[in-house]
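EI: anyone free to look at a 137-residue chain?
SC: sure, send it
EI:
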Amino acid sequence: MATRRMMLTKEDEASVGDEVEVRREDQDKINKFSRLHQRQLVIEEELQSKNKEKEDLDDLNVELELIDEDDKVPYKIGDAFFHVPQPQALEMLGAAAARLEEEIEELESKLEECRDEMAELKIGLYARFGKSINLET
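SC: here you go
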């Protein structure tokens, strides 16, 4: 997704007067930016959690590969542990890792969309209000 980014010069920022009337549409943009920022924080936290979970699954996969194929290993499903053969545990772990990877990619996509939309709002709001508004996150 290509986004167009414009940068304001210091002169552009300075040319905007200190007393700028806040219109309803400006307030709506500010509110939208705030909601997007909060959403970004939630997505980043969830993404961090999913990445940690992915690392744990990768470590577990390495450990399972070292176990003899004839051994049964405990595999947690919900709140219960089931003893399954090592190859089946590896297969189930691979499926869980694939689902997790899809979730991570979806979260990264949502985060990028959120950041792009915030950047567009920043451009418009800084163009209108200059230094009298602070949208740094």
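EI: The first strand starts at residue 72 and ends at 77.
SC: 👍
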